[in-house]
Amino acid sequence: MTFQIRRASEADLRTVAELFDGYRQFYGQTADFPLAETFMRDRFTHKDAVVFLAIDPHSGAGLGFVQLYPSFSSVAARRIWILNDLFVAPPARRSGAGRALMEAARDFAASTGARRLVLSTAHTNREARALYESCGYNEDKVFVVYRLEL
């Protein structure tokens, strides 16, 4: 399978929203395209995320996406990027699209002078963990992550 990776823009809203809706469903949410479209439109409008798309060059269909959110390391006094979402549509899995999206995220983060790129995934998501580790990510053995649901 051939694909192209490019940074998404608001012109790609429908494609990104369709993939984002699939991503949410993968994580057990009910299909809700209007919600996905509104959420992604807000990301583009407020410019508070960076999205890269894997596209089929022949049909123009979206094959996958990665979404990055900006943050900062106070200790390093530098930017970090949170790789919050990675999704490859089922027909495109094992095509290399996920790895290419990860590489695009890494290259983008480096181009912004970021200190690091961080992500999290479920302990049980073995396929994703294998991909992340093969891309050079290391499981954090130093910090414990806490969260407060609101």
List the main descriptive attributes of the protein structure presented here.
alpha+beta, 5-stranded mixed sheet, 35% helix, 5 strands, 4 helices, 150 residues
How is this structure best described in words?
- It is a single chain.
- The protein is α+β, with helices and mostly antiparallel strands and 150 residues long.
- 35% of the residues lie in helices and 24% in strands.
- It has a five-stranded mixed beta sheet, sandwiched between helices.
- α3 (97-111) links the parallel β4 and β5.
- The chain is globular.
- The N and C termini lie far apart (42 Å).
- The model has no long low-confidence stretch (mean pLDDT 95).
Output the radius of gyration: 15 Å
Number of helices: 4
Q: Mean pLDDT, as a whole number?
A: 95
Helix content: 25-40%
Sum up the overall morphology in one term.
Answer: globular
Which consecutive residue ranges, at least 5 long each, have pLDDT under 50?
A: none
Main sheet specs: 5 strands, mixed
Distance between the amino and carboxyl termini: 42 Å
Which class do the helix and strand fractions yield?
A: alpha+beta
State the order of secondary-structure elements, H for helix, E for strand: EHHEEEHEH
Largest beta sheet: strand ordering: 1-2-3-4-5
Q: Tell me the strand percentage band.
A: 15-25%
How many strands?
5
